[in-house]
Amino acid sequence: MDDKARSLKINKNMEDFANVEEEIDLRRGPWTIEEDFELINYIATHGEGRWNSLARCAGLKRTGKSCRLRWLNYLRPDVRRGNITLEEQLLILELHSRWGNRWSKIAQYLPGRTDNEIKNYWRTRVQKHAKQLKCDVNSQQFKDTMKYLWMPRLVERIQAASTGSVSTSSCVTNYSDQSLINNNTMEHLGFISNPNGYITPDNSNVAVSPASDLTDCHMSSEVGKIGQDQNLVDPQISSQNYLDNNSGLLNGDFTKMQDQSDLNWFENVNGMIPNYSDSFWNIGNDEDFWLLQQHQQVLDNGSF
DNA sequence: AAAAAAGGCAACCGCGATTGC
DNA sequence: CGCAATCGCGGTTGCCTTTTT
């Protein structure tokens, strides 16, 4: 053991010793309202920092660490509660693709969100989908799925929300499933055919249905299966089409982003969007998952 | 209606980095 | 400069709630 290691070990032992000493009636587990109140009151008059002594002086039977965590993740006035918004989801996906599990760094770009919250979001929502798609969350396949399908769809939804409407792409499976609908009808409804025979939404000129109407699109797994069988939707083309239509939002901006000033594009998007939390739109609904599976199939076939 | 499984999230732990004496 | 104390991060755990069987 070198000197540094020995020093760290001693340091650690001292810390453990101090904790053991204090553990004589140290509380653990969920915080009570009374404890919260005491901590808030103490910080209101004395400020934060020096957490160990703060814990003692405030009369809290908690470790400094515990107090700090409770304050930063829950009691701070600027902590934002509630569902992660679409814009936040988009930002998390992009920043994670850039920095990996640097939660605190990612959290810096999401005011009011804590690293813990973002980490939980990633682990519960994003990793869940990777698991369902039977691929590793760090695999290129999953990254491609996010980049070419998930994120463009989020942008799409953010834009749609900003105009008080949603994209028809959510309904593409429904319409394209119906063989009775010919090309003219599809075009009339705002879809465009591409040379491969796939149907993609034409976002440029279509009047779209309100969010609440999305349920009319029969986004059940059964519809998804039909679409899958007929191979009518090409996620890559659909996504690329969308990316092309929204180059000002996505192309280049993320890749060059280094600091807060580079997030201007995002602030612009944010500014025109009502800041609502909408669990209905969150990634994770049946239709989204079906699209992800479609994309996975394309990847598996090696045509990506 | 009850039990089991899964989901979601707050809180804890270990460790390296930083600070201040 | 060395060392102890403290901070902060990322990983993990455990408990409560919700969903499924």
From TrEMBL:
Domain Myb-like: 23-75, 76-126
Taxonomy of the source species: Eukaryota, Viridiplantae, Streptophyta, Embryophyta, Tracheophyta
Organism the protein comes from: Arabidopsis thaliana x Arabidopsis arenosa
Keywords tagged on the record: DNA-binding, Homeobox, Nucleus, Repeat, Transcription, Transcription regulation
Name this polypeptide is given: Homeobox-like domain superfamily
MF GO annotations: DNA-binding transcription factor activity; sequence-specific DNA binding
Residue ranges of domain HTH myb-type in the record: 23-75, 76-130
GO cellular component: nucleus
Subcellular location: Nucleus
